Predict the structure of DUF1697 domain-containing protein.
Amino acid sequence: MTRYLALFGSINVGGNRLTMADLRYAFEREEFTNVETVVASGNVLFDFDERPTDGLEELFAHMMAERFDIDSFVAVRTKEEVRAAVEDNPFTGSGEDKFVHTHFLAGQPTPEQFEKLMSDHAGRGAERIAPGQRCLYIDYVDGVGRSKLTSAFIQRRLGCPGTARNVGSLARILAKMG
């Protein structure tokens, strides 16, 4: 069995309220094992046979729509990918953990898409941004709440949805992954 992390976007924000107990139950009904939620924002650890994560992402997005009537982006990553999301983030250790994020993406942006994001964001804020493997690394230097570098802004430039977690949360999740 492989240990995975499912990161749900749009959970417990904007009216999409869902208890973590209900989310765990939905995973267990789908016969995933060792299901555990971490923080009340849509982070689910689970065990399942090793398989490509994109199929799991589609399954969970469908599950959210069918069971809870919530349209949600879902990123599924292995323990190694979560570790890379912390260790490969060039801003980890140089910025405040609560402001340093990994923005998990549905796909890998092209260099041209990343350049469009950078040029469109120029002059809009102090954020530092770097490309990663199916993710962006972001240091929201002045805080996330006031930033103009939103998920919607990123999605429009890169052409794919995503969801972000700060490196402090990711480190806690990684520790729970064993």
